[in-house]
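I'm stuck. Please check this protein.
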Amino acid sequence: MCGINGLVSNSISNVLKEKYVSKMNLALAHRGPDNTGIWNNDEISLGQTRLSIIDLSDAGNQPFFSNDKRYVIVYNGELYNYKQIKLQLQQQTQGDTTPPYFFKTNTDTEVILAAYIKYGAECLNYFSGMFAFAIYDTELNKTFIARDRMGVKPLYYHYSNFGFIFSSELRGILKSELKKFELNTDYISEYFTYQTIHAPNTLVKGIKMLLPGHYIEFANNKAEITEYYNLKNKIEPFEANYKSTCNRVLETLSLSVQQRLVADVPFGAFLSGGIDSSAVVGLMSNVSSEKINTFNVSFDESEFSEGKYARIIAEKFNTQHHEIKLTPQHFLNDLPEALSAMDHPSGDGPNTYIVSKATKNAGITMALSGIGGDELFAGYDVFKRMHSLQSKQWINLLPKTLRKGAAELKQLRSKTIANKKIAELMAQPQINFKSAYPLSRAVFTQSEISELLTYTAKAKDSISNLLSEIEIKDNFLFSAVSYVEIKSYLQNVLLRDTDQMSMAVALEVREPFLDYKLIELALSINDRTKFPHSPKKLLVDSLGDLLPNEIVNRPKMGFTLPWQFWLKNDLKTFAEKNITELAHYNFCKKNAVLNLWHRFLNNDPTVTWSRLWHLIVLNSWIDKNKTYLILD
């Protein structure tokens, strides 16, 4: 697990290329405290900061060269099946003219390089893992850059007439000081709406994020992007009885957990006490010969603490349990660090930073997480809402004016965020999954966005684009919801935050639920099998008696904090400063944004803390990066 950087240009001198990449390495030092390296020639400069997980020797330092010195790689991530691929590359089958590769290290880095030498871009189809890497061919002067199927590991890039620059983090490119970049105001409305900007776009004009399942080939000052994996093409109806389906789910998840335990450093697991993290810990204990280290952040306030549930799992599986008790003051003290760690802003990052920091401080370098279980097994309320909407298609038979008027009347009687969204939905030409889903994930409705911003998005809404791609087959509505959840909220908020917040403290996080084979299986199972009569019924039944009833039947909480109270008290000065500064940018309607803040202070039920927090984070991010940005 590392940070990678690179600058490809034959118009910039070697000295300058090395200077820029050195600054990038420095900006990403937190990702890889164990080693830093740079290599460059007339065409390219490659840099890497290393967090050693597999083969801790210096032989695994990067940039890393092939035996013949033709190829050089920088790599961030983990390849879970590298041992199997390594065996294949050491063998020579009949008719194969490529000689076996002689390995000089035990790293997965060398396996990726050797696989590329033998298979070219096709090597990506052999890999199971999370990764972003760049390989440079010194003979052809060609750079090959790839990102894993699910987008666990990030890769940002900028391409112009000078050449091509890339990094594991947005700040790597910004702090290279190659040039000043503009704030991407074209997508500010998307950020206001969804508390993030969806890849490939970012908050910085000209800097893109390589999409999951894609690779770039850069040669002769031209970049060609190719998709090598498309999830929706992998969804094939899985026909089996319920017991066989459960067995297949358990087998696939168990193998995923087992593969993610390969490490030469101390490891553990985040344990909230919910179904997903508890399942991961239980399956870890089944295959590990040593005690599992588990980590739970809890609070004295029972309404915010899941500590008692985590203790039940820790006792059942005899883990080395670490319960980190946090007071509000502890969290508030760490908040400036958490905001500084935010490479690309979103509304959901500081929680992950707190857990990651506590885990790292306990001496752990790698941890498993339960991220993804809700998306695969219908754990979110949005699945139930979309199912309910599907059963109410008679609404479309009503005149639009009638349903719109009824919704507006309901909103007048009870001013809630939910009623606002219902009113906006009822104004749509058709009431269905594709019109309702964007509203379910929206922090602000489109009418509210037009009140807050001086202009709205020039491009079509990213989630609407996703929805236009998919065909909803009979009895596969939940798979459609899962697909859009994965491609929007999971990849552009949860995974981005997990990477930037965990790597800020040099902690690697692995997510067993995001094994691509498990995802393909889950999305190929029909609604009748997955319908959530109880929380994640298919997953729970697949686990058998692994989890106790207290965990299976507990209320869903999530890791929440008393933000509503803090923003009006301990964080009021900080919050007010950032809202006021944001209101003065020319993309905001100043009075409307300031009024939003005053309505929150006056307990307006339609202005919750979550509708303000991502705006506070946005201004904080702009303020921390204004040295590198052109702002109006």
